[in-house]
């Protein structure tokens, strides 16, 4: 024990928990697991122990406001002080959306940041909590860091924490905690200013003043205050444009995942006779987005393609795109845009961290994922409100409806019919066995035929990062058909109950083909082929997916 004035650095003995390997996006567990004595502390110390040379440096801390956010923020602040950080910047009330945290890390020149969120997973005492570590570029820690954290968590035997009173995180200003400075900052303004620097707010404001209507569903999660400031105050949309705008610790018992199942309230509004012109939603921590035009849903993969094709219409991207990156399971719609623009296209494994190197190296400007994440080089995370603003900027310039823009896009590039089928809460051993069987069958698939067509090739996706040549293997099984259709299988890295099998189904139809099919009809033979080839019912006992998006 080391005494310094009225506070004390405690070194607390602990024993490892063997389940702290960070997944696709940090450590995500049930709240009651995080509430075990020493659990959060062990993980935070494992993070700090995996980092070097941060003495005296700045750490950014904030979260999406979910249940346990405040308690863990106090733990992080006291542990940062005990471990030698010089300054912690914390969002007022403990609030920081993931993209706002990324911006703050970058603009403050911070060493890194801890973002407390389980993203789109539900919150509350019986639901999920999470901690993710972001590095100094503002993006998720790369695999070498998360691997080091996981390894450290298995041998950790003590952690350091300051014994001190809680810091008042509701009052903006600077205070001292031990030898460390704590700065409580407004979580919204700097982020809103960044958005205003990228997009033509005057054009969007004029469009709204001219009668264009929109609805933004914050899903009772972190984007409420950001959306109110940006859409209602800065862009002049009427009060009430932001739905579910107050962040709640349990997200009002909803699942803050902006898809057609969980954002049903928005979906129904957008399909009604008197629907607004444009609707959008974001998730728990504000990095995902859902885009729905009046009577017209836009898949995340199509949204990426449309944003890439039209980004030059926004001031921040008028110089064009250095490159486009998409995760492997995301449809190839963006590939066709990249080809037309003459811009390189990168296909990465799932997980935003893989985009960070490309963005840092100036190789890509826009990135996106089928899981409703889109973003650019303005931060190193995906960014829900950014995607909405880019859409609004494009709509303000083109003066067309979302449906007309989609029709025009497909007529130019063709259409990638696309769906994702999720089989949730499968026993982990069954899910692993299904994937192992698929991997075992890879060599025998090419040339065989089934309802999806003739298999051209099949592999387990591996990625070599072009910036540092690091290789990531086993990133998902791909079955490619002769006609360009594709089925992909992978296990989710973000679930907290058993395993989730994701099946991604895609069929391309050229500009002269049938562009107006119902997605379910267009994909029916491929869906049957996917269920058959992986024997999904046999392994999972489920004859249909839990969620289709
Ligand atoms: C996280 C990552 C995303 C990734 C997603 C995949 O999203 O940040 O880059 O696409 O996980 O999830 P899964 O492994 O379940 O398919 P988020 O929004 O949960 O942080």
Query: How would you write the strand order of the largest sheet?
Result: 3-7-6-4-5-10-9
* Helix content class: 25-40%
The total of helices stands at: 17
Oligomer kind: single chain
Total count of domains = 3
The poorly predicted ranges are none
List each distinct ligand once: 1,6-di-O-phosphono-alpha-D-glucopyranose
List the helices and strands and how they pair.
Blueprint: E1 2-4, E2 7-13, E3 27-30, H1 31-34, H2 39-49, E4 58-63, H3 69-83, E5 87-95, H4 98-107, E6 112-116, E7 128-135, H5 143-153, E8 158-163, E9 173-177, E10 180-185, H6 189-198, H7 201-209, E11 214-217, H8 223-234, E12 242-243, H9 264-271, E13 278-282, E14 289-293, E15 296-298, H10 300-310, E16 324-327, H11 333-341, E17 345-348, H12 353-360, E18 366-369, E19 373-376, H13 384-398, H14 402-413, E20 415-426, H15 428-441, E21 449-450, E22 453-460, E23 463-464, E24 471-472, E25 477-481, E26 486-491, E27 499-509, H16 519-533, H17 536-540, E28 547-548
The structure holds 1,6-di-O-phosphono-alpha-D-glucopyranose (G16).
Task: Describe the 3D structure.
The structure is a single chain. This protein is of the alpha+beta class and 549 residues long. The protein has 3 domains: 2-185, Alpha-D-Glucose-1,6-Bisphosphate, Chain A, domain 3; 191-413, 3-Layer(aba) Sandwich (Alpha-D-Glucose-1,6-Bisphosphate, Chain A, domain 3); 415-548, TATA-Binding Protein, CATH 3.30.310.50. A 7-stranded mixed β-sheet has the order 3-7-6-4-5-10-9, with helices on both faces. It has a 7-stranded antiparallel β-sheet with strand order 21-22-25-26-27-20-28. Helix 11 (333-341) links the parallel strand 16 (324-327) and strand 17 (345-348). The radius of gyration is 23 Å and the shape is globular. The termini are far apart. The relative contact order is 0.11. The mean pLDDT is 96.
